Amino acid sequence: MKNGWKLFLSLLIPQVVGLTAGYFTVTGVGSWYQTIRRPEWNPPNWLFGPVWTALYILMGIALYLVWKRKERSAQKRSAITLWSLQLAVNFLWSFFFFNQHRTGLALADLVVLWVLILLTIFAFARISKTAAWLLVPYISWVTFAGILNYTIWMLNR
């Protein structure tokens, strides 16, 4: 596959997953989320869309940098598998939190997601240091999201 198509697909896949997960987020934010207790330091709702869009772009670029490399095919396959798993677990968080209103389950999902992102960073670093560094803002945001999710869970138990 030509690198142009790899770049296109690498950017498209996380955006499609993000848009699909965003459906659950938008429907939840407009109703249930407004009724629960949230910490005073909860970011404004308008911030989440741009942040996630940027993070999905960075994830796509990171995937592309790994996918386009020709060497180390077993390592590359493993790294891309981890990337795919973390993206699936990322999607599930929106479903658990906003659709099912299961803040505790969403928190457990975030713990799994955080570990998968870290493993993906390590796997990507063996292939492309740049790709690994592109995931650092993502794991940082997921760390913050985990603290926020935990606080919301505790406030609404």
From TrEMBL:
Subcellular localization(s) per the UniProt record: Membrane
Residue ranges crossing the lipid bilayer per the database entry: 7-26, 46-67, 79-98, 104-125, 132-153
Highest taxon in the source lineage: Bacteria
Metal-binding is among the record's keywords: no
Keyword terms: Membrane, Transmembrane, Transmembrane helix
Pfam families: TspO_MBR (PF03073)
Keyword DNA-binding: no
A GO cellular component annotation in the UniProt record: membrane
Membrane topology field: Multi-pass membrane protein
CDD domains recorded: TSPO_MBR (cd15904)
GO biological process terms on file: tetrapyrrole metabolic process
Record-linked InterPro entries: TspO/MBR-related_sf, TspO_MBR
Broad class of the protein's primary localization: membrane
Family according to the record: Belongs to the TspO/BZRP family.
Official protein name in the record: Tryptophan-rich sensory protein
Annotated source species: Flaviaesturariibacter aridisoli
